[in-house]
Amino acid sequence: MSRVILLDIEGTVSPLAFVHEVMFPYARTRLVSHLAAHWNEPAVQAAVEQMASDAGHASLASWCPAQAEAAAFAAEEARKLMDADVKATGLKMLQGLIWEQGFRDRALRSTLFDDVPAALQAWHAAGIDLRIYSSGSVHAQKLFFAHTEAGDLTPLFSGYYDTTIGSKREAESYRRITTECSTPAADILFISDVVAELDAARSAGMDTRLAIRPGNVPPPAHHHATVLSFADIPVSGLQRCADPIEMLPQSLA
User: Fold this and answer.
1) N or C: which end of the chain has fewer CB within 10 A?
2) C-alpha span between 58 and 63 (Å, rounded)
3) Residues 99 and 124 in one domain
């Protein structure tokens, strides 16, 4: 039986459209104003220092020598990263800080697929350890689940992981999560909409399911069982698959 279920967010528990058409634009339009208003706060300084590190610089000062222009410079660099869909740790930290204000102001409410809240409740009630692994910062993940349209779901989760533990496309990241969970990899089920992430998790020994959701990009050929709804994974059905069978993209099946 799976003792841990590890979940992706975007395209797995929440529609891609919500993330790309609501959350990302919300952060993007507030980059300049947020950095200008909160520049000296420790959390913002930590985020921009991490952005400098992500860009290969030793510090913010070496990244942007003109300190008087640092906030505007950081906002422009963040905008470039968003345009290129770069999942850099510092950017995700900064986005999380901006989203926090949006959730507090009730301008944002997280949208989930209809089947998700009930499934999470059922799995949790059955004693399954629920955890999240997303490119968004841990701070943003907690905000996301604390402010869903179904209410605060954070009590259901016991762990959150972001890119500080490693890339979602590298097997070593999943080995680290396995260690964090103190659970054999074979007893962890990872659900994501990205085949490359599932390949990495499978290489680390985890069980995997590919989420096929409305609005997702059709997947390439793969070796993972698919799931269209979490309702299709009842507690009694959380047995580990024996041998994976290569599957065609959903659009070709």
Assistant:
1) C
2) 8
3) no
